[in-house]
Write a structure and sequence with these properties.
Layout: H1 5-19, E1 29-38, E2 53-57, E3 78-79, E4 85-93, E5 97-105, E6 108-117, E7 122-131, E8 139-140, E9 146-150, E10 152-153, E11 156-157, E12 159-160, E13 163-175, E14 179-190
Antiparallel strand pairs: 1-2, 1-3, 1-14, 4-5, 5-6, 6-7, 7-8, 7-9, 9-13, 10-11, 12-13, 13-14
Length: about 190
């Protein structure tokens, strides 16, 4: 069999293109810890749980309380597609950032939208959360009025395109007409859209 040089060059180029394709990006992953407390009764609304409670995804509070997510500890995470978990997120920018994310595992959810960070690494976002064992409906901040601060620890400032580790405080997360709680917590988003 006699092959032409043109065919050989074409075949090599095609094989080279196949072997040089981009690797599949890793799935989004993250974690969160949320604490809910009652708001002042002067606004006429009550926290639906009737008491303060804290929950996390993945759940480590009960089994390994010293390993819970904090500004200095991030040892456990939830990966999109593993078990019943779903994680999606976006962290875009360089000196300032826009971000959003959703982490859910079973009946526990944290969703962050309309997030912006100024170049001082603080900003705002809208937060919605749900815990099916404690709440009958999701609680959502009225707007993007939750204060967000990027974690800065011994490893440096924890934000870059595609990932964010931050704390948040929401004066109120609500379900109309009469439910409201204060919320604060910590979250990590990784392998996000950049």
């Amino acid at each position: 069999m006699n092959l032409s040089p043109r065919w050989c060059v074409t075949a090599l180029a095609a094989l080279g293109a196949l072997s040089c394709s981009d690797p599949v990006p890793p799935p989004a992953q993250g974690a969160f810890l949320v604490s809910l407390t009652s708001v002042s009764p002067s606004n006429g609304k009550t926290c639906p749980s009737g008491a303060a409670f804290t929950y996390d995804v993945p759940s480590v509070l009960a089994s390994k309380p010293t390993e819970k997510l904090t500004e200095n500890t991030y040892l456990h995470w939830t990966v999109d597609g593993e078990s019943d978990a779903k994680v999606s997120c976006s962290v875009k920018g360089s000196s300032s950032f826009s971000f959003s994310g959703r982490i859910s595992s079973g009946v526990e959810v944290l969703e962050i939208s309309n997030g912006v960070l100024a170049n001082n690494m603080s900003g705002t976002a809208q937060v919605s959360l749900f815990n099916g064992t404690k709440l009958s409906s999701a609680l959502t901040s009225p707007g993007a009025d939750c204060m967000v601060s990027v974690v800065s620890n011994s490893q440096g400032v924890q934000v870059k395109p595609g990932s964010l580790w931050a704390t948040f405080i929401c004066p109120s997360v609500e379900h109309q007409p009469g439910e409201a709680c204060q919320a604060k917590g910590t979250f990590v988003l990784e392998n996000c859209t950049q």
